[in-house]
Every structure is written in C-alpha cells, then in structure tokens.
Design goal:
alpha/beta, 163 residues, 2 domains
Length: 163
C-alpha cells in the first residue's frame, strides 16, 4: 500500500535520472570536440606546445604555467608562457591552493591574464597538449613550478566586457 502512495513521487526522479545519464555523455563528447577544435586552432596559429617541451622548460625553471578553468566542471586548459607572471602581474593573484574561483578581488587578474596570455586571438601563452595519461594527478605534477590559475568562465568574461 505504501509503495502505491510513494511511487508517483519517485517516478519523476527516476525519469530525470534516466535522462541525465545520456545528456551528460553527450555534453562530454561535445566538450571534447570543442577542445580538439580549439587545439587545432592554437596549432594553426603556432601557439601549441607538447607536454615534453613543457617538461623541458620546467626542468630549466623557465616561464609560468597557467591553469585556465573554463567552468566549475571543466575543462582545464594548461598554458605556458616564458614570462614570470607573479613578478610582472599588476594585480593580486595568489590564493590558497592556487585554485581560481570567482572571488571578486581576483577579477582584475583574470582579465589581465586573459588579455595578455590566454586570449585565443591575441594572447602570448602557448596551449600545452597534455596527454590523457598525464592529466591524472596533474596538480601534483605541477607542484613546485611557477604556476598561476585563472578563470575564464563565460560569466567572468561577460564581467570583463561590463567594465
């Protein structure tokens, strides 16, 4: 008897769950396709760097790695520039655990980093092609190197345009 009374409340949840699984997979495939296209665009403009080239630069303690978060759920783009961003940044950039989230005091740094380094059309940084097997534990692999993180969420970029 209880099951008959409760079933109408759980049926919409079951339907939503069943729909969310393929929807999530479709979104992931679409995101991967967009990232491949973006990588091709950076390669065509001479702004692509291999993982091995990044490791070589880091072994020689050159440049800065930029972790660019495009949304809360990903993807994370890894960039490299020969510049020493912490030394030349006119804005506050350091935060606990180096994670770039939407903290208003870092908005000027995010905008500056985007304009100077990660802008696909005019930035100076090179996109690093990180092999899938290297993505696991990436944060640990980049510990001890000059690293900054930034947000390029659509909502953040809209704030850039508002100011």
């Amino acid at each position: 008897m209880l099951g008959v009374l409760v079933f109408p409340f759980f049926l919409p949840l079951v339907i939503l769950f069943a729909i969310s699984i393929p929807w999530t997979q479709i979104n992931r495939l679409n995101q991967r396709r967009k990232e491949r296209k973006f990588t091709e665009q950076m390669s065509a403009s001479g702004r692509l760097m291999t993982w091995k080239a990044l490791q070589l630069a880091l072994d020689h303690r050159q440049g800065t790695v930029i972790g660019e978060y495009l949304s809360m759920s990903g993807p994370l783009r890894v960039w490299w520039t020969s510049d020493d961003i912490p030394a030349v940044s006119p804005h506050r950039w350091e935060r606990e655990k180096h994670l770039a989230w939407l903290e208003p005091e870092f908005l000027p740094f995010f905008k500056w980093t985007y304009e100077q380094f990660t802008n696909p059309k005019s930035g100076l940084a090179r996109l690093v092609c990180v092999p899938e097997e290297e993505r696991k534990g990436l944060e640990k692999k980049l510990s001890g190197v000059r690293f900054v993180s930034t947000c390029s969420f659509r909502s953040v970029r809209e704030k850039f345009d508002d100011k």
